[in-house]
């Protein structure tokens, strides 16, 4: 059985889902530490006539010290929800499949989510269902594992009785491969293909939020989220 894992990013890029699709179980790392600096957990890129359209979700951090992702709460103050929705509607007003997904995006960006995890899981689940992933998604918090780094990933595999762990190619530089070998787990690396597809607003921009792909290509997105070369 093949296991992969990732933090719960906000409206992730297509490669995030390519990794999930190439696995039997996809573990969302909801109890690891929330990064101190900028992070894909709270922001991602879309596209408008000016180029990259960044959507950032404000969260409470000041004075809270180190937080786990599962504990990070969204800041409801300000007009960011309306601003983001207006930005999406304007940027994708000519997108062929806007009507198919606009209702979900309106719900995602206007509903009063308490935590960033709740909001991000809603988007991830929506995309997995649309891609007909049929994969098992598990939260780290449901596994009861309290480790860090490579030891955490090894324990995930052991808990799920997996014999292979699928990691993103850049992880080769920091994963402790000996720990996987000693546990009898085959470590495999994947570099997802970057789908090239028709976009609005000029020159193609790679690795935007997968919603750019969904809004422009609709059901064809299912075949375009490739797994790349292992």
Class inferred from helices and paired strands:
alpha/beta
Q: What value does the Rg take, in angstroms?
A: 18 Å
Largest β-sheet summary: 5 strands, parallel
Side by side, the strands of the main sheet go 5-2-1-6-7
Q: What number is the mean pLDDT?
A: 94
Range of strand content: 15-25%
Distance between the termini: 16 Å
Give the key terms.
230 residues, alpha/beta, 5-stranded parallel sheet, 7 strands, 33% helix, globular
Description:
With 230 residues, this protein is an alpha/beta fold. The chain has one domain (2-224). It is 33% helix and 15% strand. It contains 8 helices and 7 strands. The chain has helices at 14-21, 80-91, 98-110, 116-130, 149-159, 177-182, 210-217, 221-224, and strands at residues 2-6, 25-28, 43-48, 51-56, 136-139, 164-168, 186-190. It has a 5-stranded parallel sheet with strand order 5-2-1-6-7, with helices on both faces. A two-stranded antiparallel ribbon has the order 3-4. Helix 1 links the parallel strand 1 (2-6) and strand 2. It is globular. The two termini are 16 Å apart.
In brief:
By secondary structure, this protein is of the alpha/beta class. It has helices at 14-21, 80-91, 98-110, 116-130, 149-159, 177-182, 210-217, 221-224, and strands at residues 2-6, 25-28, 43-48, 51-56, 136-139, 164-168, 186-190. The strands form two sheets. Strands 5-2-1-6-7 form a five-stranded parallel sheet, sandwiched between helices.
Question: Topology, pairings included?
Answer:
Blueprint: E1 2-6, H1 14-21, E2 25-28, E3 43-48, E4 51-56, H2 80-91, H3 98-110, H4 116-130, E5 136-139, H5 149-159, E6 164-168, H6 177-182, E7 186-190, H7 210-217, H8 221-224
């Amino acid at each position: 059985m093949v296991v992969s894992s990732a933090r719960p990013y906000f409206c992730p890029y297509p490669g995030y889902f390519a990794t999930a699709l190439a696995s039997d179980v996809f573990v969302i790392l909801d109890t690891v530490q929330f990064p101190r600096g900028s992070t894909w957990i709270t922001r991602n890129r879309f596209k408008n006539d000016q180029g990259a359209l960044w959507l950032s979700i404000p969260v409470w951090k000041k004075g809270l010290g180190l937080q786990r992702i599962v504990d990070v709460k969204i800041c409801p103050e300000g007009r960011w929800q309306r601003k983001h929705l207006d930005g999406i509607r304007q940027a994708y007003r000519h997108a062929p499949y806007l009507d198919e997904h606009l209702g979900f995006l309106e719900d995602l960006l206007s509903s009063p989510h308490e935590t960033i995890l709740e909001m991000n899981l809603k988007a991830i689940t929506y995309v997995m269902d649309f891609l007909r992933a049929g994969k098992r998604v598990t939260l780290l918090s449901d596994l009861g594992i309290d480790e860090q780094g490579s030891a955490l990933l090894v324990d995930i595999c052991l808990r799920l009785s997996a014999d292979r762990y699928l990691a993103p190619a850049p992880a080769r530089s920091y994963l402790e491969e000996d720990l996987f070998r000693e546990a009898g787990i085959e470590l495999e690396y994947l570099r997802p293909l970057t789908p090239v597809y028709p976009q609005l607003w000029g020159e193609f921009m790679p690795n935007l939020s997968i919603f750019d792909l969904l809004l422009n290509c609709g059901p064809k997105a299912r075949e375009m989220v490739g797994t790349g070369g292992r």
